Amino acid sequence: MPSITKTLGLITAGLAALTSALPAIPKLTDSQLNIHSLMRRQNALAAAAGLTDVDILEFALTLELLEAAFYREGFAKFPAADFTALGLSESQIKDLKNIGSTEEEHVILLQGAIAAAGVKPVQACTYNFAAVNSAAAMVATAAVLENVGLSAYLGAAQLVTDPGILTTAASILTVEARHQTFIRAASGVVAVPQAFDTPLSPKQVFSLAAPFITSCPEGSNLILTAFPTLTMGGDGKTVAAAGSEVKLQSSDTSATAGAKFCAFTTGGIPGGTAFTAFDAATGGCVVPQGLKGVVYVNLASAGPLTGKLTDDIIVAGPIVMQVS
Prior knowledge:
This protein is an alpha+beta fold.
């Protein structure tokens, strides 16, 4: 009768032979490992932000409702002749109106997706577009809103865990990018100002949208709160050259008291953000060299060497700045 030790030895040898006969399991590349790591972090990031996938859809719907109302009210206020006077052709005016129509379709899609999840979609809020007092102001504001919408979807992508919801969001993101490019081209500025777009956190996006929102119906307020607003000093124009000094001021003076850095967030730079020292006495800071295109500017309490700007260190902002 064979001993247990001998039997185990035979089994072990047999398993070793079987293993060597099996095809080798392909090793994941560094890129695949990074993707795997990102997917594992998604749940943690969303949990830290207190957001579920449906919350993110509600957030997207809030932004789409605002955009749809913006175009609807704008075209009701300004006749086509006002846009012609800006130099837009008949076909460009038609395309601009079509952007408003696609925003309405985005609303319908998101409402359906949220309802399918068994949740009542948020309703349209009361908006204040009083500052948009001309066709020129409408086109300029549209360029900003479309860029913010693009950054919103891009920033929320890392928080979504459901592949179906991620695909839905991506299908809207690509159209928002087309909107932004068309408006820039029609406005006579560089259509593609930079090689990479910029993701923003939901709270940063809501902070940019909040000034347009007067009030929302019961049950339609998001769980997000806006950061204190930030504005440009001097002539108030949000256009600057790399290497120049800009003046920033906040509606909340206590916020600027805690600010140590100006944070310039844009696509294509390590970590996503470049930090420069903020002078609280003058409200000034220098725009970093090497930046161009659309840049989001916040005041921050810290300036990590990693270039990573997180909500917990933002004290005011953001504003949208065009850097040349």
